[in-house]
Amino acid sequence: MRKVLALVLAAVLCLSLLSACGTAPASDGGNTPAQEKTDEAAEDTQQADTEEAEAEPAGDIPVIKVSYPCLVITPSADAVVDVEKTINARLDELNAGVHMQLEAIDGMQYATTVDMEQIGGEKVDLYMALGNLSDMVAGNKVTDISAYRDILSVVTDITGDTFLDATVFDGKLYGVPCYKGSVLTYYWVVPTEIAEDDLGLKVGDRVTVDDITGYLEIMHEKYPDQIAMGVRPGSNGSANQFCLSAIYGGPRNFSVTGLLSAGIGASTIGIVGDDLTVVDLYETDYFKKVCDTAYAWNQAGYVNKDASVATEEGYDLMKAGRCLSYLIGYGGCDPKITDADTDTTHGRSVMMIPVDQNLNMPTGLDWCVSYGCEDPEAAVKALTYFYTDPIVMNTLLYGVEGRDWINTGFNDDPMDPIIQRPEGFDALSVPYNAQFTCGIMGNEFIDWVVADEKGEYEDLREAHLEFMQSAPNSPIFGFSFNTANVKNQIAAISNVEAKYLGGLLTGEMDPDVYIPQLVEELKQAGIAEVITEAQAQLDAWNSK
What is the pTM (predicted TM-score) of this model? Predict the structure, then answer.
């Protein structure tokens, strides 16, 4: 299933970020021919329901607005109405004492939209901090929810007591992380016939970056008219060079924990290995190795020439017949060969070849209560149902039974059905679908399993949970860097990074020439003050 991170990961490391949630080409969210097959009676019912929902006040029950990002597809406001009603009916059944008002926002516009709503004084209650919770705390955009830890005990009963540690700043709790397969396995994705026939690889083989370099040489020589490695610098978690940075930062290589995301597939400062000394990561052997590899691939002609400004992902290039491989990260570990008939992401069968995984660290995907929320206690209560109740969670993801999904009957548990799209519809054509947001919502391990049109499916939830729990933890798991005291320096650092990282991470800039320039300009921008502040906070955290 395709990992869709076009937004999430515009603001986070990623993934850390996200686990794989579905397989679909990019969409502008508009209606498809299949969606237009929805009959007029259904439309009339939906319109009546909309009017009814608007006419019926919630009474004394507090209504919490949930603003959530939608990836690939953004459901229409009309489609959201029945979903909202179904969730609120379930909350009434549970005597939750709270209702939800759903706001589905295009993932690419999510951060800007929520920010403008807050500035404009519009109602904002629950929303997602995509990797920048520290900035939101520093900007007083989120509410301290420490007083509601007792309400959140139903969440920590599932996740463990240390789950909330990464959202604590100066002893105050500001968010609830997503509970998901935060440990990603990074794969090299290659067409199956090339992997088997040209490279001699089989399912379950692991490769190193050095191995990949050798294979790229073979592919480039045999298929000179195609890109051997699809690359874009991107600020999203599926971007190739983010994965290269993550692979070298993983436990098989340098074991890096970043403390400040550069927003383009790199971290500005952090620690290397078990040494708790905060350093400028751009001065380390780790970053030099990343850039040297990227430069070698670029100079050998293995990557696309427009890499530093490319907007297409590796899977899009492959589907268009322009590239032969790319790197990507998915939650859990599932080396496999895809079915050419059902793999609409690539348009062909591909082999997923594991390279490395990342350290177990908090996801950076945190649900927060806005500073303008009038009833933060009710907001926290509403949020808990995304972690504890499968009906609430999956209605938000998959919509309304009968219209957007059907129960296959493959599982007798009514709280955990195996579902499928109605006949004649797919993930892109049903009236409502937020399936690709699964890695950004609540408890991923209660997400329902979706069967394809043939009735085939994989339930990897338990395997992903075990994989995450068995992965090596970062030595500073749970620590969060509060950037409030160094906001100006960080802004200046970001401007410097924007000049260099795209070119360095795609191999267009010679690292021997440009890394020293980057490091010097970062010193002038005040990176020493940022490191000092981070070290002081880390030392205080470590002494507890």
Answer: 0.73
